[in-house]
Amino acid sequence: MYIYDTHVHTSECSACALNTAREVVRAYKAAGYSGIVLTNHFYRGNSAVDRALPWTDFVTAYYNTYLEAKDEGEKLDFDVIFGLEEGVGHHKEYLLYNIDLEFLLQNPDMIRLSPDELCKRVQAAGGFVSFAHPYRFRQSYMTEYCEPIFGCVDAVEVYNACNEPLENKKALIAAKERGLVFTCGSDLHRINQAEDGNLVGMAFTHRVKDGAEFVAALKDPETKAYIKGEIIEM
After folding, report:
1. Is the pLDDT of residue 85 over 80?
2. What is the 3-state secondary structure (H, E, C) of 138-203?
3. Is 94 helix (H, G, I), strand (E, B) or coil?
């Protein structure tokens, strides 16, 4: 099996992350992973990229971090796939997969769309949407808790390594009730999480090289969860 993390942050784009893209790639390679999807916080999230930049400059700077990670991955025979994490209101966030720089450049209004409008825009372009840690509540930075509305998402992050067990359990139940695809991610913000063995992801039967292959692998019935060193059925 080939292990990929679906939810990863780096310091160039995520203000809450501590390590650079190249450092993160090297840490995952050392941990035995085959690849990652880089999902830094985007415009409505905890972005480290200056929102005062013109749209083209903002998204180019954001995408350049992926290119840095990809370059490091190519040196190590390690797959790096582009994705992003975007806020959709009430402290809820979506993971967007199988989109690219062209999509971002062509959709400057995406930062003003409702959750369902954003889903439909991404899906119309061939992309895929997973609801990130839908039941998370952190009093340290969340002023309110709102029950998730799953709308037209394609998937649910049913296991997030930074979540409480009950939060993950509720996410798994919600995904099963709705017949949605599962994703599992570490939500990595610092490489000591990798060094401590607190990593999760998806176990695929083959390597994946881009967003389309990654999404197809998520839908494959042979795909399993990878939870802190164990491959399991969810």
Report:
1. yes
2. CCCCCCCCCCCCCCCCCEEEEEECCCCHHHHHHHHHHHHHHCCEEEEECCECCCHHHHCCCCEEEE
3. strand
Q: Which amino acid is at 216?
A: A
The number of CA neighbours under 13 Å toward the Cβ of 135 is: 18
Angstrom distance (rounded) from CA 196 to CA 192: 6
pLDDT for residue 142 is more than 70: no
Instruction: Record the pTM.
Output: 0.95
Give pLDDT tens digits for 153-195. Answer: 999 999 999 999 999 999 999 999 999 999 999 999 999 988 7
Strand partners, 155: 130, 181
CA-based nearest residue to 161, from 2, 18, 1, 9: 9
List the 2-8 sheet strands across, edge first: 181-185, 155-160, 128-132, 92-97, 79-89, 35-38, 2-8, 200-204, 224-227, 230-232
Contact 110, 133 (CB under 8 A): no
Element (H, E) at 181: strand 181-185
Residue 5, token pair as written in the block: 């993390």
